[in-house]
């Protein structure tokens, strides 16, 4: 069975004046099937959202802010795995969200639904967290960073079209990264003044990830937001300057 994405591609190619034979060579769809679709004047259902990366002329996923946020969640606490028969090429995008932050779980589910509105979003209880997932044949197209093994053990590079989205929505990407592998906390420092011990408190953001590539993606997005940051450890980005924390609060804030 051919997906609506394939049918729509065939329809658009025919609309450009391509012959049935040419369209068959381009898509791998049999001549008789293409002829049947042409004669029946098939049109995609209004409720069907085709994959933007599989169209004849690929376009950017929409809404871009939701995609950038979901990309941050995926890079932090997400994975893509095949579901059922591998030959059917159905994939599950899974995001693990701590039960301590129910608002974050809701935001994750909304982002999944916004990016793939025709796919059901599920919540599965796990030990100490909830798995929020959605099935689609197109998750590897939308998140080409997918691959075998841990993200920290393989290169993580954004495609040019993904970088275009991140450049326009750096705050959404950083929000997703912080909601997955980051936190906003109050740092308490002990000091002495006139022989008196005092404690100083100030807010601070930390982002911890074992992938150097993902850390660099976070740092570049922070640069786009004009947020000063540094490595406090090889696997940790720290944002501690008062003006930097205030700036990041505009996009992230405490988990909820």
Largest pleated sheet: 4 strands, antiparallel
Number of helices: 10
Counting DSSP E segments of at least 2 residues, the number of strands comes to: 8
Radius of gyration: 22 Å
Relative strand content: 15-25%
Order of helices and strands: HHHHEEHEEHHHEEHEEH
Shape: elongated
Helix content: 40-55%
- What class, by secondary structure content? alpha+beta
Low-confidence stretches: none
Strand order of the largest sheet: 1-2-4-3
Oligomer: single chain
Please state the average pLDDT score.
89
Q: How many angstroms does the end-to-end distance come to?
A: 43 Å
Summarize the structure in words:
This protein has 256 residues and is α+β, with helices and mostly antiparallel strands. 41% of the residues lie in helices and 23% in strands. It has 10 helices and 8 strands. It has helices at residues 4-15, 20-27, 31-40, 64-77, 102-115, 139-142, 160-168, 170-181, 212-224, 242-249; strands at residues 78-82, 91-98, 121-126, 129-136, 182-193, 196-208, 230-233, 236-239. The strands form 2 sheets. Strands 1-2-4-3 form a 4-stranded antiparallel β-sheet. A hairpin with a 2-residue loop joins strand 7 and strand 8 (236-239). Helix 7 packs across helix 8 and helix 8 packs across helix 9 (212-224). The longest helix has 14 residues, at 64-77. The two termini are 43 Å apart. The relative contact order is 0.12. The mean pLDDT is 89.
């Amino acid at each position: 069975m051919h997906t609506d994405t394939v049918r729509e591609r065939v329809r658009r190619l025919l609309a450009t004046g391509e012959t049935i034979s040419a369209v068959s060579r381009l898509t791998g769809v049999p001549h008789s099937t293409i002829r049947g679709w042409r004669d029946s004047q098939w049109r995609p259902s209004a409720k069907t959202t085709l994959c933007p990366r599989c169209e004849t002329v690929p376009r950017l996923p929409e809404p871009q802010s939701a995609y950038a946020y979901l990309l941050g969640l995926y890079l932090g606490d997400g994975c893509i795995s095949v579901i059922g028969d591998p030959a059917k090429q159905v994939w599950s995008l899974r995001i693990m969200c701590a039960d301590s932050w129910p608002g974050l779980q809701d935001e994750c589910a909304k982002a999944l639904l916004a990016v793939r509105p025709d796919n059901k979003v599920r919540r599965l209880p796990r030990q100490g967290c909830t798995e929020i997932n959605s099935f689609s044949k197109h998750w590897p197209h939308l998140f080409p960073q997918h691959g075998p093994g841990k993200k920290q053990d393989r290169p993580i590079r954004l495609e040019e079209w993904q970088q275009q989205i991140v450049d326009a929505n750096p705050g959404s990407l950083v929000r997703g990264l912080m909601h997955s592998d980051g936190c906003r906390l109050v740092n308490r420092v002990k000091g002495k003044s006139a022989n008196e011990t005092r404690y100083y408190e100030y807010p601070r953001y930390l982002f911890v990830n074992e992938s150097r590539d993902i850390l660099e993606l976070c740092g570049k997005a922070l640069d786009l937001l004009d947020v000063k940051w540094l490595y406090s450890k090889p696997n940790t980005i720290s944002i501690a300057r008062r003006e930097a924390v205030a700036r990041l609060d505009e996009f992230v804030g405490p988990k909820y």
